[in-house]
Design goal:
single chain; alpha/beta; seven-stranded mixed beta sheet; three-stranded mixed beta sheet; 12 strands; 44% helix
Length: 310
């Protein structure tokens, strides 16, 4: 144990260097003329875009979303609690442009800290994980639904992060794959375990063995993602779809959403009989809640329920 602990810092440094080399190498391999497209910091803003909530930032040099408040301003991870009709949705934005969103010690620490805080926040209903670096995506063990919005590259660790989310959506122009075997290593962030669970063992082996990179349409065809969208002018089609899904989840009972996720995740790891027992135990957790009574009363009174997560 002591030897393993002593070796951990060195191992972490190796993993970080691996992710940086991996993304750089695969960008070069996509095609000689391939480049990152779209712009997030200074998009062209037309009247329709303005109406959707874009507002000028201080100084007038860039634009920002007007419907959210930024509660954390570290360079590498931005946590935003959306407001108004999007209240209850949290966006985790990864922002390491200079390293193409490869994982760093600081980023890992901030992700861990953010996850710990979000786990205990009962006001959080759905979490969207996205890149704030144009063209690159690079969720965790959270009790609420998580959605990965892939608008650009998701290679190696980027795809492994997306695989840790409950739902994945991508632009048709996105590029994703577990390509570590090109560097004579293997996926080391859960890819060898989560990819087979997502698309099946045989196809997962084929993709990992070949280090194949898929676009959005191909990823949808094999079941790697749930939705594929044509990329828009702003370069955030997948994020907008993720936001639509999150809004669809918002009206549901918060306790029910958490235990439904628990029942599905735990049940998929066991046989059917045990899975049904897990479902029964999870169902029992919803019976004594105030939300269940509110749901019945709202149905009787033909009105929208007002759930409080209790």
């Amino acid at each position: 144990m002591a030897a393993a602990a002593a070796a951990a810092p060195g191992a972490l440094a190796i993993l970080q260097a691996r992710h940086a080399r991996l993304v750089a190498a695969c960008c070069a391999r996509l095609s000689p003329g391939w480049r990152l497209s779209g712009s997030w910091t200074v998009p062209r803003v037309d009247p329709a875009t303005w109406a959707r909530g874009w507002t000028p930032a201080a100084g007038g040099a860039a634009w920002r979303r007007g419907y959210s408040s930024e509660v954390k301003t570290e360079d590498e991870l931005r946590v935003r609690y959306l407001e108004e009709e999007n209240r209850g949705i949290v966006v985790l934005g990864i922002n390491r442009a200079y390293a193409k969103n490869s994982l760093s010690t600081n980023l890992i620490k901030m992700l861990s800290k953010a996850v710990d805080a979000l786990k205990s926040d009962k006001k959080v209903r759905t979490i969207i994980v996205r890149s704030e670096v144009p063209g690159i995506f690079c969720a965790a063990n959270l009790p609420v639904p998580t959605i990965a919005a892939i608008d650009g590259l998701a290679l190696g660790g980027g795809l492994e992060l997306a695989l840790a989310c409950d739902i994945r959506v991508a632009a048709s122009s996105a590029k994703m794959g577990l390509v570590e075997t090109k560097l004579a290593i293997i996926p080391g962030g859960g890819g060898t375990q989560r990819l087979p669970r997502a698309i099946g063992m045989s196809l997962a082996k084929e993709l990992i063995f070949s280090a194949r990179v898929l676009d959005g349409q191909a990823a949808k065809a094999v079941g790697l993602i749930s939705h594929v969208l044509e990329q828009n002018q702003e370069g955030d089609a997948a994020y907008r779809k993720a936001l639509d899904l999150a809004r669809e989840f918002l009206p549901q009972g918060p306790v029910a959403m958490r235990v439904a996720k628990l029942a599905i995740n735990q049940g998929m790891e066991v046989d059917l009989v045990t899975g049904l027992a897990i479902e029964e135990a999870c169902y029992a957790q919803t019976i004594p809640t105030k939300d269940r009574l509110e749901g019945l009363l709202a149905f009787k009174e033909k009105r929208t329920p007002r759930y409080k997560g209790e």
